[in-house]
């Protein structure tokens, strides 16, 4: 991404931020003036410094002119990312009391001069340094000096024409504090990148960016989440499933349980997703893990994204049920990642899934659970759109996706936070029912788009030996409604273990 890209019409240069280069489909057209706007703290300075650092790596002269921050502040920002600004010319325009012969930078005085003189000083600096890349921070100071919009616009146009003759690529930063609704610069700039920062009632702040315009360049529109990490900005481009296709075998694979394969018709098909829905404690996670282990034992890789349960608890519980995950983690076949929905943005989560599939080669992905994922989203509509794009992407990659959805309640009518069953290729319903004074579990496949599945309900048993699935239950009705009715002696139920038998008696 750091190489210059020659298109049919123009030369593209890297922004220094890989994710943003992806959004721009290679980078920005060179020798143009761009506006980077955003409120204080949204990441403008970090983005601009990375842009200049990328130029330094290519041997290009770089210049940072600041009217709002000091050189010490810029240096502190760089140090927080592990950068050094050696080789980048920094010029600050500060108050007169900062002037001194012992200061290494050139000091100007925008508070004491007119806008025209400030612009002339900027031009003089550029002519002296002859940079290929320039950052001007920030336009709010120039706007205040202009005193009226017409004069401000004329001076910015003068700068634009001057930079164009010098073959400079320029980023002008605007913190939108002087005139928040002022859009006149959008028409002057060759491209506009807008950075946003929002604070939730709970959890960390969320950041996102949008390319408002980019003349002569086809880019990925819409909002893209990003975070500020040590080393710069990490942009998570919006996942577009239509851009990701690959061929894969379509033959069904086993879940590791012949009875569950029979319920599903033939098993699980690559490129499909299955939704496991039911109340808490009914066995959704255990069933998903069993299916995942069957894939791991076939030699596939898997990625498990855990939202609800603690990682240590899941490992202990799985091992107690005869499904030890640690060996698969140790040999690299399983990536087990605990997700904090209050700290992770939806775009970052989608990027993590994409990385697990494309970089780590995961053939099966488990999301546990959609309930917590829902709370990480700003609204239900966004959840549906995100899940639709993510599931479509996984399907086109030939991945088997298992999604867990917890339902409210234990018996009777159960309720879900959101219904996404229409997005699922397969829906597996798990329920509690009571027989012989013992609480039992049932499993049934409500729909599948890939085969003629079994319509019966079977009993699900979970103990220290793992999972067992019984024969179809014939003598109960109303199990899925939560109000089962016993109709006759049913010899298809699983035998009770000694503890359950003693409690029943």
Automatic annotation (TrEMBL):
Residues annotated as signal peptide: none
Enzyme class: transferase
Keywords (A to Z) from UniProt: Hydrolase, Kinase, Phosphoprotein, Repeat, Transferase
Organism the protein comes from: Paracoccus acridae
Gene3D superfamilies referenced in this protein's UniProt entry, alphabetically: P-loop containing nucleotide triphosphate hydrolases (3.40.50.300)
Domain KaiC: 11-249, 251-483
InterPro entries named among the record's database cross-references: AAA+_ATPase, Circadian_clock_KaiC-rel, KaiC, KaiC-like_dom, KaiC_dom, P-loop_NTPase
Enzyme Commission identifier(s): 2.7.11.1
Name the UniProt record assigns to this protein: non-specific serine/threonine protein kinase
């Amino acid at each position: 991404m750091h190489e210059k890209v020659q298109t049919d019409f123009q030369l593209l240069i890297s922004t220094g931020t890989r994710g943003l280069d992806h959004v721009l489909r290679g980078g920005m057209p060179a020798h143009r003036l761009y506006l980077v706007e955003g409120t204080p703290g949204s990441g403008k300075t970090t983005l601009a410094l990375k842009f200049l650092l990328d130029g330094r790596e290519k041997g290009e002269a770089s210049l940072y002119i600041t009217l709002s921050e000091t050189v010490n502040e810029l240096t502190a920002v760089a140090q927080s990312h592990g950068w050094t600004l050696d080789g980048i010319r920094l010029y600050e325009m500060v108050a007169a009391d900062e002037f001194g012969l012992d200061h290494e930078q050139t000091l100007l005085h925008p508070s004491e001069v007119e806008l025209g003189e400030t612009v002339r000083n900027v031009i003089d600096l550029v002519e002296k340094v002859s940079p290929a890349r320039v950052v001007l921070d920030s336009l709010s100071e120039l706007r205040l000096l202009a005193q009226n919009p017409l004069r401000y616009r004329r001076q910015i146009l003068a700068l634009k024409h001057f930079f164009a003759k010098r073959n400079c690529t320029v980023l002008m930063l605007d913190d939108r504090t002087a005139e928040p609704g002022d859009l006149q610069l959008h028409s002057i700039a060759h491209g506009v990148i807008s950075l946003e920062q929002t604070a939730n009632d709970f959890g960390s702040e969320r950041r996102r960016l949008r390319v408002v315009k980019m003349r002569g360049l086809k880019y990925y529109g819409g909002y893209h989440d990003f975070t500020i990490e040590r080393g710069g900005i990490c942009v998570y481009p919006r996942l577009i499933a239509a851009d990701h296709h690959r061929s894969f075998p379509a033959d069904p694979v086993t879940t590791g349980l012949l009875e569950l394969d029979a319920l599903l018709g033939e098993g699980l098909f690559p490129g499909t997703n299955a939704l496991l829905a039911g109340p808490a404690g009914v066995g959704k996670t255990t069933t998903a893990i069993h299916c995942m282990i069957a894939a791991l034992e076939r030699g596939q890789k898997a990625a498990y994204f855990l939202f609800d349960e603690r990682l240590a608890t899941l490992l202990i519980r799985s091992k107690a049920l005869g499904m030890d995950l640690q060996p698969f983690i140790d040999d690299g076949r399983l990536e087990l990642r605990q997700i904090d929905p209050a700290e992770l943005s939806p775009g970052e989560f989608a990027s993590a899934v994409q990385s697990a599939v494309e970089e780590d080669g995961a053939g099966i992905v488990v999301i546990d659970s959609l309930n917590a994922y829902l709370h990480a989203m700003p609204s239900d509509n966004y959840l549906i759109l995100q899940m639709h794009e993510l599931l479509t992407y996984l399907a086109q990659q030939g991945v088997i996706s298992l999604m867990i959805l917890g339902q409210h309640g234990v018996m009777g009518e159960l309720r879900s936070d959101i219904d996404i069953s229409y997005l699922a290729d397969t829906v597996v319903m798990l329920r509690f029912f009571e027989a012989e004074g013992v609480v039992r579990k049932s499993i049934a496949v409500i729909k599948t788009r890939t085969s003629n599945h079994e319509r019966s309900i079977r009993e699900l048993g979970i103990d220290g030996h793992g999972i067992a699935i019984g024969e179809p239950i014939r003598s109960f009705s109303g199990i899925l409604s939560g109000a089962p009715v016993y109709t006759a002696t049913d010899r298809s139920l699983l035998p009770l273990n000694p503890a359950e038998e003693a409690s029943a008696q």
